[in-house]
Design goal:
The chain contains 23 helices and no strands. The chain is an all-alpha fold. Among the domains are: 93 residues; 113 residues, Alpha Horseshoe (Leucine-rich Repeat Variant), CATH 1.25.10. The chain starts with 12 loop residues before the first helix and ends with a helix.
Length: 409
């Protein structure tokens, strides 16, 4: 007798799972019809979830309709949650080696990760998938599934669904469904469509502190300037530290000249965070930063010094760029990275940054190369090409990655 491998038709769940593992190879599209047929008759929820994950690993244009059907019709809420996660993973792949991972054999859902993965450039999300997520967000009987669907709509940058997200957010029947409303608010912030601004203004004073906080964050992310007076009022009158700090951080992101008086009043404040965000807010307005140079001389806190240098370079006091480039080789490198990116992308400082590709500090050369790759200005290509021959391995790698990133645009 010939020995046969595990089968999707085996009476043993373990053998069916072994068959999924064996057949779920990237590009093995011949297995998709068998997986689809197995989904329809599989009695074990954990095996159905594994079939969904296996389909994502295989890939191909026929997979999303199967995931969508599972989201719409599976009776097990955990399998529907797996469908939501699988839709996200289809469009935003993650490292997928070893045993197939599902919600049943892993402690936490990928969708629940507080750090949302970015949608890769050029990826087009099938309308069938976003339609299914929007329907699930509104109609699924389980709040966790509705919340997860709302989250993935944001992660997939489904801008066309902003109106239905607003409608769902404002539906009186959802007033007590805090998880769903919170995920919608967060997704609106990720999508950054200013048409959602008026709806988020209403939730700035939501009775749920989590929804209120995320509304403040979302308004800052989308730069919705009409909400500035409300944010300033929260900063001045709310007794909760989290609300005060978050409202100030969002104010600093609005790029609204109307915020200057508040920011200027906070520059001498004893609170380090207030000084940092005040300088950051001024950097994003038309502000003559000359007066900041004296404050910078006496400032002791590195995070505040970086923010003041950001404001000074934004107002064309370019000598202070050294303060930021040097910070790329410090514990505050992420803050410096953000400021330098803004200066290059939105303040016309790319030519200034190109010069720092010749810095004597390899950490600075590598950091500036990484930033210039994200900015993607053609004038950076020639100096980055030179850096691909750099004797420092990190610098060379960042230069190669930067050019690769520019080539994908």
């Amino acid at each position: 007798m010939l020995l046969q491998g595990p089968s999707l038709d085996s009476p043993s769940p373990k053998e069916r799972q072994a068959a999924i593992e064996q057949m779920a190879r990237p590009g093995n599209i011949e297995a998709i019809p068998a997986f689809e047929a197995a989904l329809k008759k599989e009695s074990k929820s954990e095996v159905r979830a594994e079939l969904l994950s296996g389909l994502v690993r295989i890939g191909g244009s026929t997979v999303p309709p199967i995931l969508v059907r599972s989201l719409a019709s599976d009776l097990d809420k955990d399998v529907r949650l797996q469908s939501v996660e699988s839709i996200q993973r289809f469009y935003i792949p993650v490292a997928d080696t070893g045993t197939i991972q599902t919600l049943f054999n892993r402690a936490k859902s990928v969708v629940a990760n507080p750090q949302r993965p970015p949608l890769p450039a050029g990826v087009v999300v099938d309308k069938l998938s976003t339609d299914a997520l929007a329907s699930s967000m509104q109609k699924d009987p389980i709040e966790d599934v509705r919340a997860a669907s709302a989250r993935v709509l944001g992660t997939l940058l489904a801008k066309a669904y902003v109106p239905v997200m607003i409608t769902t957010l404002e539906d009186p029947q959802n007033l007590d469904h805090k998880a769903v409303r919170k995920e919608i608010v967060m997704s609106l912030g990720v999508i950054r469509d200013s048409s959602a601004g008026p709806a988020l203004q209403k939730t700035l004073r939501d009775r749920d502190a989590g929804i209120m906080t995320e509304s403040i964050v979302a308004i800052g992310l989308m730069g919705y300037a009409p909400a500035r007076p409300q944010l300033e009022d929260i900063f001045r009158t709310d007794s909760r530290r989290e609300m005060k700090e978050q409202s100030l951080e969002s104010l600093a992101m609005l790029r609204d000249p109307g915020g200057k008086p508040l920011f200027e009043s906070l520059l001498p404040n004893s609170n380090d965070f207030y000084r940092e965000k005040a300088a950051e807010g001024l950097a994003r307005t038309d502000f003559d930063g000359a007066g900041l140079s004296e404050l910078l001389k006496s400032e002791k806190k590195a995070n505040v010094r970086n923010a003041m240098a950001f404001a000074l370079v934004s107002s064309n006091h370019d000598d202070y760029i050294n303060e930021l480039t040097n910070a790329l080789n410090s514990r505050l490198s992420e803050q410096a990275d953000m400021y330098i990116y803004e200066l290059g992308k939105y303040r016309g400082k790319v030519a200034l940054l190109n010069g720092y590709l010749r810095s004597s500090d390899p950490k600075v050369r590598a950091g500036v190369a990484r930033i210039l790759g994200r900015i993607g200005d053609p004038s950076s290509r020639a100096p980055l090409d030179e850096l691909t021959k750099d004797p420092n391995t990190e610098v060379m790698r960042e230069a190669v990655n930067a050019i690769r990133l520019m080539n994908t645009r």
